[in-house]
Design goal:
The complex is a heterodimer. Chain A is α+β, with helices and mostly antiparallel strands. Chain A is built from seven helices and eleven strands. Chain A folds into two domains: 110 residues, Ubiquitin-like (UB roll) (Roll); 108 residues, no CATH class. In chain A, the strands form three sheets. In chain A, strands 2-1-5-3-4 form a five-stranded mixed β-sheet, sandwiched between helices. In chain A, strands 8-9-10-11 form a four-stranded antiparallel β-sheet. In chain A, helix 2 runs antiparallel to helix 3. The longest helix of chain A is centred in the C-terminal third of the chain and has 23 residues. Chain B has one domain: Alpha-Beta Plaits (2-Layer Sandwich). In chain B, strand 2 and strand 3 form a beta hairpin. Chain B is globular, with a radius of gyration of 16 Å. Classes of the chains: A alpha+beta, B alpha+beta. The interface between A and B is large, with 44 and 38 residues. Bound molecules: iron/sulfur cluster (2 copies) and FE2/S2 (inorganic) cluster (FES). FE2/S2 (inorganic) cluster (FES) binds next to loops of chain A.
Chain lengths: 258, 145
């Protein structure tokens, strides 16, 4: 265990833990848009920036991304110092120039008193803040179907070569994790479309309810050892089935007693 | 683990009190969550089965989760689903052969029974004791060396 100071309060943290975790445990809210428990920290958005110093640093201060900075004995952390607020404002201001229509960015910026960017809006800006969560989660799930392409202003998330991604299984993890809902998909109960590709959904043999895509189910059968017939029914049909089976057993028990 | 959660369908009267208790016990921001337990009819007269996660030994839910959001809680023995880690791919919901990994559409979360951290609230409310926390009687022989 290490002991550090966060906003004037002494706190204990686990060795190797990131500053952001210790900060959140204290109930302190700071934005951390490119961070998600499912993936490793990445340090892309820099919104989680905090100020650090130590008693023997002679007044010298540093600003670090707390999602990537491991806790240290004797560290003195400020999450809302004047400098930190200024840095966060600048970042939000820049994000607002790139993604003027992203609700999440608008709301975060508004919390810091910014309603319009002071920079020039990127001409054909979109809602992607390039946090990399989508590509990271896709990699983590083992599909590696999408990646960031291009550089600078033209940088964007896309399947390789900008075509319908052959390795995508339509699990929607990327769309679910995207903090600005930039990744669009449609689902009409039979077909799911994402990244310009169509997927057929598995339908429950009993209720007709759609579950996951056929490709995703096939992947889980092949790589995660899930018996194929588990996917023939939806969750509610599975519960009914279990109730009937257990009911049958209990019924026999009753008859034997009688 | 000195206790285990036992479901006794022969005592269930289908009153659905457990369902309500579960829902409230798993409220999110003051709003009831989706119940993790479902007392269902069986096709036999006056026979209901409270369907709830079996906390399987080699669970399909955990196997299907590609981001390791479902893990065994060493203290309670339950398979706990970490909502912060879950990316809502619905693999576990589709894979559980008992339909006990659930989509809570109201809260946009995937949920399952966590045995309430070791003291299941439903068991406290079941009027007929069809749901009980029972001490485990040690009956394992010692391994010979
Ligand atoms: S959710 Fe389903 S697969 Fe997972 S432990 Fe419970 S009963 Fe088993
Ligand atoms: S829905 Fe969540 S818990 Fe279930 S398999 Fe997907 S990521 Fe894991
Ligand atoms: S959350 Fe730390 S840099 Fe984005």
């Amino acid at each position: 265990m290490v002991t550090l100071t966060i906003n004037g309060k002494l706190v204990r943290a686990r060795e190797g833990e990131m500053l952001l975790d210790a900060i959140r445990r204290e109930g302190i809210e700071i934005p951390a848009t490119c961070q998600h428990e499912a993936v490793e920290p990445y340090g892309a958005c820099r919104l989680c920036t905090v100020e650090i110093t130590k008693a023997d640093w002679g007044g010298w201060k540093n600003h670090v991304t707390s999602c990537l900075y491991p806790v240290q004995e004797g560290l003195i952390v400020s999450t809302h110092s004047e400098d930190v607020i200024r840095i966060r404002k600048t970042i939000l201001d820049l994000f607002l120039a790139r993604c003027p229509n992203a609700e999440l960015i608008q709301n975060m910026a508004a919390e810091y008193g910014i309603t319009r960017t002071s920079y020039e809006e990127v001409p054909d800006g979109n809602d992607c803040i390039l946090c990399g969560l989508c590509t990271r989660v896709c990699d983590k799930m083992g599909f590696q179907a999408i990646s960031t392409v291009g550089r600078g202003h033209g940088k964007e998330v896309a399947p390789p070569l900008g075509e319908a991604p052959p390795d995508c299984v339509g699990c929607l993890a990327c769309a679910q994790i995207c903090p600005t809902n930039y990744i669009k998909f449609t689902d009409d109960g039979t077909t799911r479309t994402i990244w310009g590709r169509e997927f057929e959904l598995v339908k429950c043999e009993t209720t007709g309810q759609p579950t996951i895509t056929k490709e995703f189910a096939a992947y889980l059968v092949k790589h995660r050892n899930i018996p194929e017939d588990y996917f023939t029914r939806c969750d509610s049909a599975h519960r009914e089935e279990l109730a009937k089976t257990m009911g049958r057993i209990t019924h026999w028990g009753r008859q034997e007693e009688a | 683990m000195n206790y285990r959660f036992v479901v006794k369908p022969e005592l269930c009267i289908g009153c659905r009190t457990c369902e309500l208790a579960c829902s409230f016990a798993h409220s999110v921001n003051g709003k009831p969550g989706r119940s993790r337990i479902y007392p269902l009819g069986t096709g036999h007269k006056e026979l209901w089965v409270p369907v709830v996660c079996l906390q399987c030994e080699d669970p399909a839910c955990a196997r299907s989760c590609l981001v390791d959001a479902i893990t065994r809680n060493p203290e309670t023995g339950a398979m706990d689903l970490d909502a912060e880690r879950c990316v809502r791919c619905m693999a576990c919901v589709a894979a559980c052969p008992f339909g006990c990994s659930l989509h809570d559409a109201n809260h946009q979360m995937v949920v399952k029974c966590d045995l309430c951290g070791g003291d299941p609230v439903c068991a406290h409310f079941c009027p007929t004791k069809a749901l009980v926390l029972e001490p485990i009687v040690q009956q394992k022989k010692k391994k010979s060396a």
